Structures are given as C-alpha cells and as structure tokens.
Amino acid sequence: MQRLTPLAKGMIGAIAVGSLWGAVYTYGPHGTRQDEDQLVIEPRATVREALTPAAQTKNTAQAPGTAQVPPGAAATARPAGQVPAAPPPYTTLDSRPVRVGLSQWPGHLALVVGAGGLTTQPGSVAAQAGLNLEIKFLEDAPTKNKALATGEVDFVWTTVDELPINLGTFVDAEVPVRAFLQIDWSRGGDACIAAPEVKQVEDVLGRKSAMLMFSPDHTVFEFMISNSRLSPAQTAEVRNATQFSLDDFTFGRKLFAKGEVDVACLWEPDVTLALADRKGAHRLFSTADATELVADVLLARKDTLDARPDVAEKLARVWFKSVQIAEADRPHAARVITDSCSRFRDELGYEKTLGALTWAKWTTLSDNVRFFGLDGSAPAFDRVYNQADSIWINYPQAEIEHRFPPATLRDDRMARAVWEAAGKPAAAPEEIYNPKLAYRGEALFTKPISITFGLGSALLGPTAMALINREIVPQLEIARGMSIRVEGNTDTSGDPGVNQLLSQRRAQAIVDYLILRGVPKNRVVARGNGSSKPIAPNETAEGRALNRRTDVLFIRGAA
Questions:
Q1: Residue whose C-alpha is closest to residue 145's, from 293, 300, 40
Q2: Burial of residue 515 (number of CB atoms within 10 Å: 0-12, 13-18, 19+)
C-alpha cells in the first residue's frame, strides 16, 4: 500500500549510491549494542529539510564525542523556520476524540475495524471500551511527523526502519517521542521481484535494480544483498547499478515492466501488478522470508505517554481486541475497510481487499511481549532498529545527524500493563519447521563467515561465539521464514576423510551454539563438505584460505 519514505517529497539532489556496506552492530547476549548509554552526534548534514519542509537552513553538527544529548533534547542550533514545540496536546484529551494517524496499509487497518470506521461507531470495540477515536490517513513522513510534533494527532504510525532517519525532526522540534505499541509485521507485502534468469540473490550482480529510496523495500533489498556471498566490492557494484526514486512508489514497477531493470523492490499491490506485467517474473525475496524485518509501530509524544498512560493503554487494549475481531471474521473486516478507506474502495474493491489482508500480520499481545522483551527476552524492537541504523548510516543521502540507542526509543509501560493484567501469558511458541527443507533445500542466498578453530579442533572459542552473535544470530532472528543449513568447508590439504569429518564437526558446533541461543532445532542443520566445494583454486595460499570457510545457507520456507 502507499507508504511513502521518510525522505518522500522533500529531498532534492543527485543520488550517488556507492557507499560500502558497514559492519553490523555487535549484539551481546541480550541483543543490544554495547554503547546503548550514549547518543553520538555525527558530523553530517541534517535531514530536516526533507522531513520538515518549513526548515530552510541546515543545523550545525557537532564533532563526535563533544556532547552527549539525550533523545528528544534540543540540538545545539535549531534551523530557522523549524516547527516549534506545541503546547501539550494531552491537556484536552478528555474533551475531544483521540486522534490517530495511520496509513492505508492493511497492517494498520484492524483499528478501523475496531472503531467501525474512521470514527468510533456505536457498538464497536472502541465504543465498548469508551474510546472516542478519530482516524486520519497520513501517508508521507513530513506530514505525519509534523502532525505528531504539533499535536494535530496524539498517536501516529511509523515503520521502525525509518526511525533512524526521521527522529531528528523531533529533536529539533524539542518533542521527545517513543514507540509504545507494535501494530504489524510485514509478511510478504514488501518484496523484491526478479526476471526469470535471477534465481538467487547473488545473480543480482551485473544486473540493474530499481526501488523507492529509504522505503521498507530498500530495507529488504539491503538485507538480502548484504547477507549474501557478494563481496563488499560486489555489493557496492550492485548498489551503483540501482536506480532510485525519492517520491514515486511505482518507479520500480514501471522500469521492471519495460524490461529496463531485472529487479524491482516494491510493496503491494505493486508487487502483484509487476509480476503480471512481465512474463516469468517471480518473487526473489520478501518479508515472507524476512518475517521480522519490517515492523510498524505507533509513536507518541513522551509527554503524552507520561501524563496520560491510561489513554495509551486503552488504545492498546482496543487494538488487541480489534485484531481478535478482524481475524475471526476477515470478510467483515474487508467490508469495513472497503467502506472506510478510499484506496481500498476506489482501487482494489472488496475481493482484492480481502486478499490484501494476507500482506501483513496484525500483532497481538503475544507479539508485543516479544517485541518489547516484556518476558526478559531480547526486544525485537532493538534488533529491527539496529538493523536499519546499520544500513542508513552508510548512505550519505540519509543525512543522519543524531543516533539513538534503541532502548531509549521504546516505552513498554502500556503493553506491560495489559500483559500483567492478563496474568503475564507466555509469548506464542516459535514457528514449526520442517528439517527436510534445511537438509535438502536450495539456498536463496549464502552468507560466508570466517570462524577460526584451533588446529584439528571443533571447539568454539569466545571470539568465534562473539562473531556468531554479531553476524549470524540477528539475521536468523529476522529471517524467521527461512530454514538454515550450516556447511563446513576445508581446503585439499591433508587426508580427505579427516577433512570431511572435521568440517562436519565444526558445522555441528555452530549449529549447537545457535540452538543454545534459541534457534529452533528443527530449523537449522549441519553439513560437512570437506574439500568438495571449493570456491577458489587450492594451488595458492590465498585460494586455500578462501576454501577454509563456513557457509550459512538461507533456504526459503519453514514448514
């Protein structure tokens, strides 16, 4: 659906995408960055001109390490014309409707079902809870960010992957914000589609791609190429061969239909339309594979959450109940959405709207328990945020000035209150996997990783464990729609039988560690290849070093 990027229509200038992929952040035992108590001010130009059209001048960035600024605090110099902080909107909450800004994206619209329309209707879930709602559709980042900062709305949607880019606008407006409720996971609604000859992610090399820059689909594209066998130089080549639009979400589909690019990253319904436009086109990679890559949340001003947590908690309860009602009767949900939402009514109609409800997963209380780590587990919010931050910081065009530890951007009080009142139910069990897929499936993409073992040993040391925590565990947690095979490989030195057995033991040691870290045991398997799968000549020291490797194969499908 129409979800415009954080840089939407305000960003101007030439695009030169050639930056190399940066290192993924180090995840500790709880999946958080080691520098979570710091906010680093990067010496980069501000992005506020794109996010807040009223801003006419750039903010002056401080040198790294000169100041530690808490999230939401004023920057050292505010751009002229910047949106000023509005009086606290919570002061009038008891005398007017609660205003919520959403997008016409299926994952947001359970709340429309719960209200019975765009305002609370008699007999609806919202009416029964005593919540007087007014839903507004705000599609682009400048509009929705300004609406929250100025108090035009009390709560507004955002995708977690756009937060690293657009949080600076709230800093400059002196309005701290927090994510307090997860409302959906994209589950196939965001996808990279490809021509027939592009069968694996590595096949993207040497071909052209197209997408909307800094959109969720750009996130999907970056995840798949950066976790593939493509080298940093090859990944840069792929980026250089990619065409971006800043404001046209149909851009990639149009070029793909004309045959001008071989890969287009889109969101529905443009995915379906593009597949129909080109014979043999197929879904290469999507959020049906990376099921925890693109998440939508509700954002609120911190002062509203502090002053009126009762309203935010009531909204959370209405959301969870609305999801139950909508899931129990999807035909009814589709009718309410079609009657209430212009794009569904005018462009899709009832039948296609009903089908559109499969593009995203409406989140439940159980999902929020995992997302915010209420049960002591690593918060999925942090993982998703860090993944996006590690992408965009390497794009100069993102103009990221302020960087935030994710723990400072989420507020779990409302979800926690609902969870505790319900008796602290356990989060939903992990997905069920078919180990045959992991054993026999063809890899969609392969991530090589250099793990050092002692001579003749299959024992994982602390350095190897830290590398797995950083380079494999987060990616497996994001790509929950995929099965995994870990393959050990050696060069041709030594006895072939010994090499094969050692490679199997080393692959199994990694698998055993992943299971200890919480990866379902039916999802991941080990295979020792010995020296049978070289990727370089064994006649040179350099070639033999390349062949002594561990491969992590991502295989489409779970059950």
A1: 300
A2: middle
Integer Cα distance of 301 and 281 in angstroms: 44
> Using an 8 Å Cβ cutoff, are 107 and 362 in contact?
yes
* 351: Cβ contacts below 8 Å, ≥ 6 apart: none
DSSP string for 477-524: HH-TTEEEEEEEE--S-S-HHHHHHHHHHHHHHHHHHHHHTT--TTTE
What tens digit of pLDDT does each residue of 252-275 get? 999 999 999 999 999 888 898 899
Name the burial class of residue 258, with classes exposed (0-12), middle (13-18) and buried (19+) by CB atoms within 10 angstroms of its CB: exposed
Q: What is the mean pLDDT of the chain?
A: 84
Per-residue b or e along 310-328, where b marks 16 or more CB atoms closer than 10 Å to that residue's CB: ebbbbbbbbbbbbbebbee
What proportions of the chain, in percent to the nearest 5, are helix, strand and coil?
A: 40, 15, 45
Q: For residues 237 and 272, is the Cβ–Cβ distance under 8 A?
A: no
Q: What are phi and psi of 429, to 5 degrees?
A: -65, 160
| pLDDT band at residue 187 under the 50/70/90 scheme | very high
Using CA atoms, how far apart are residues 126 and 37, in angstroms rounded to an integer?
Answer: 39
| H/E run at residue 437 | helix 435-440
Asked if 469 and 509 count as a contact pair (C-beta separation under 8 A), the reply is no
- Cα–Cα distance, 65 to 38 (Å, whole number): 10
CA 248 to chain centre: 21
Please, which pLDDT band fits residue 398 given cuts at 50, 70 and 90?
Answer: confident
At residue 426, the pLDDT reads 86
Residue 3 pLDDT level (bands cut at 50, 70, 90): low
What residues have CB less than 8 Å from 404, skipping those under 6 apart?
39, 71, 164, 167
pTM given for the model: 0.78
Identify which of 169, 165, 225, 160 has the alpha carbon closest to the alpha carbon of residue 198.
225
Which run of H or E residues covers position 380? Answer: helix 380-392
Please tell me the distance from the alpha carbon of residue 479 to that of residue 555, in angstroms, as a whole number: 10
